[in-house]
Specification:
The chain has about 100 residues and is mostly helical. It has helices at about 10-20, 30-40, 50-65, 70-85, and strands spanning about 1-5, 10. It is about 50% helix and about 5% strand.
Length: about 100
């Protein structure tokens, strides 16, 4: 699925960027801007920002289930993203207890 039409960034591109970022020794918070910079892109019109955030959450959950990123790092990152986005609680996968 194409997430950003301006830069032709797909959900698979975002997943690969997250895999790289979240496996760094001091993994940063994977904000959409950081993910785009990792892909050597930048926001143009910014209309994709909400979809990019949701895609980042979904990709993190998928990578965690596949065992490609540490579940503890994933949980900490979700808390930080929730705080940054103004959510009261981090999003919980459908198969996890709240």
């Amino acid at each position: 699925m194409i997430v950003c039409h301006c830069n032709v960034i797909s959900d698979a591109d975002i997943g690969r960027a997250l895999l790289y970022l979240l496996n760094l020794p001091d993994a940063p918070i994977p904000t959409p801007g950081l993910v785009y910079r990792t892909l050597n892109q930048r926001f143009n019109c910014c209309s994709c920002a909400p979809l990019a955030v949701e895609t980042i959450y979904t990709a993190m959950e998928r990578l965690e289930k596949q065992g490609l990123i540490c579940p503890y790092r994933c949980a900490a990152t979700k808390k930080q993203l929730a705080r940054l986005s103004g959510r009261k609680k981090p999003r919980v996968a459908a198969d996890q207890p709240a």
